[in-house]
Specification:
By secondary structure, the chain is α/β, with parallel strands linked by helices. Helices cover 39% and strands 18% of the residues. Helix 1 links the parallel strand 1 and strand 2. The mean pLDDT is 95.
Length: 225
């Protein structure tokens, strides 16, 4: 049976790419947006692309968060705090949240190749402070580019999954495995997200210098699954 997965901020490039990949894998996707009509249009376009069997709906962010079993946070860093404050009383107990956020300086007018200092240590740790205790959190997908997700080809990227809860880490890793070519790796505790997030800025710089769009990361010497 398909899980109900909310992609919050799902009309952006990263969110719509993840929605596309997850829906193709048979998951039930709720695209969340500040405006329900915008989310509904994004859902319609994805259904047309994938086919009539695709389970994709468009809702406003609070409605999507209230109806899901698992939520993927894909809003820009500058929008995370307002959104999570809005959702604080909406989450169902037991919901799993996967944070893809990277605190790029570009979100406040700076360079995309630099990350902002976050008081809590990382965007994911900031998110943790804003979630109810009954909601568990993993950080993942930060280094998987939107352009790679938008296409049909397998991606060439390892995805580090960080969480303080092993069950949550396992669920997030299973979701990573739904994307052809992506390999989930145990990134350790949530505090390690600060390292993973900074890699995104490095990858953006590599994309710019080498004039490509899909630079990713691969770790060698690990057992293949």
């Amino acid at each position: 049976m398909a899980r109900t997965i909310a992609i919050l901020g799902g009309t952006g490039a990263e969110g719509s790419g993840l929605a596309f990949r997850m829906a193709k894998a048979g998951e039930h996707i709720l695209i969340g947006s500040r405006e329900a009509a915008r989310a509904q249009e994004a859902a319609r376009l994805l259904r047309e692309r994938i086919g009539d069997g695709a389970l994709i709906e468009g809702l406003d962010n609070p409605s999507a968060a209230a109806a899901c079993d698992l939520a993927v946070l894909t809003v820009p860093f500058s929008g995370v705090v307002p959104l999570l404050k809005q959702l604080k009383s909406i989450w169902k107990p037991g919901t799993i949240v996967i944070d893809t956020t990277v605190p790029l300086a570009a979100t406040v007018g700076g360079a995309a190749t630099r990350v902002l200092g976050v008081w809590q240590g990382s965007a994911a740790e900031q998110t943790k402070e804003l979630l109810p205790p009954s909601v568990s959190l993993a950080a993942a997908f930060q280094n998987l580019g939107a352009e790679s997700l938008a296409g049909d080809e397998p991606v060439d990227c390892d995805v580090l999954v960080c969480s303080d809860d092993e069950k949550t880490k396992q669920v997030a890793s299973e979701l990573v495995s739904k994307i052809p070519g992506a390999r989930p790796l145990n990134g350790g505790r949530l505090e390690n997200a600060r390292i993973v997030e900074s890699l995104t800025a490095l990858l953006i710089g590599l994309n710019m210098r080498y004039k490509v769009h899909g630079a990713g990361i691969r770790f060698t010497g690990l057992p293949l699954k």
